[in-house]
Amino acid sequence: MCRAAHVALMARYNTWMNTRLYAAADGLPAAELARDRGAFFGSLLGTLNHLAVADTIWLKRFAADPDAHAALEPVRALPMPEALDAVPFPEFARLSERRRMLDAVIERWTASLDEADLVRPLHYRNARGQAFERETFGLLMHLFNHQTHHRGQATTLLSQAGIDMGVTDLLALLPDLGAPADTGVHPH
């Protein structure tokens, strides 16, 4: 699989998992979503807000690049989050809406990338103002790895609340090359 196809696969996995995660969390009362369960960002709501904040920061960095793809246009108008632990969406419905928008942008953008885009360096500054230059592919792998890391925490928080997420592995999206058709059964 070429790197561009891998990036597009990771974007689809991201959307698939976020859709399932938010559907599971939607069944919890607001007090349970905001309940501090000892995670890095306290609650499930704090953890999911952190992911929306971090994704917004990274997408705005990519969108600020002079060679940015048109698919990133929707994030240019978004306000830059003030802190990684900010909770700009205390209401779950608004957070869900933002998550769907971010995931749609990520999928459209990554589907438009080719190998030349992935080797292109991105010049950006972190929250402390330090300048960096890194290859786009590596930064995208960081974006997806960061999401996976915190979604793992979110699934644990859901488990603590009595909700089983079921299968969360990327393997569930990979075709079985030896099978005649997808049976809906995905081995781990």
Automatic annotation (TrEMBL):
Gene3D superfamilies hit by this protein: dinb family like domain (1.20.120.450)
Keyword annotations: Metal-binding
Pfam families, A to Z: DinB
Membrane-spanning segments: none
Record family assignment: Belongs to the DinB family.
PANTHER family in the record: PROTEIN DINB, SLR1116 PROTEIN
Descriptive protein name: DinB family protein
Organism of provenance: Luteimonas salinilitoris
